[in-house]
Design a protein that fits this description.
By secondary structure, this protein is mainly α. It is built from three helices and no strands. It is elongated, with a radius of gyration of 18 Å. It starts with a helix and ends with a helix.
Length: about 90
């Protein structure tokens, strides 16, 4: 249990930041699922639009410390590859 005022403040801050980070992660995952759904449906126009919505969200996740930059890059690369394969098919 926290005894010092600073420790109590850190607990309050960590609780707020955890809620914010969970919200951000959820938003990113939702947008990734939109790309996956469009690829599964074979709708390349919707997939490209969803991919364009995912990219800034992943970049924001990196800048906010939710993802490592290589993790976000890998996720975006894999999504891009799936959308590109859909366009040629």
């Amino acid at each position: 249990m926290a005894n010092t005022p600073q420790a109590k403040k850190r607990i309050r801050r960590n609780t707020r930041r955890t809620a914010i980070n969970k919200n951000r992660l959820s938003q990113i995952r939702t947008r990734i699922k939109a790309v996956d759904a469009a690829v599964e449906a074979g709708d390349k126009d919707v997939a490209v639009a969803a991919l364009k919505a995912v990219q800034p969200e992943l970049a924001r996740g990196v800048s906010k410390g939710l993802y490592h930059k290589n993790t976000a890059s890998r996720k975006f690369s894999r999504l891009t590859k799936r959308v590109a394969a859909l366009q040629t098919a």
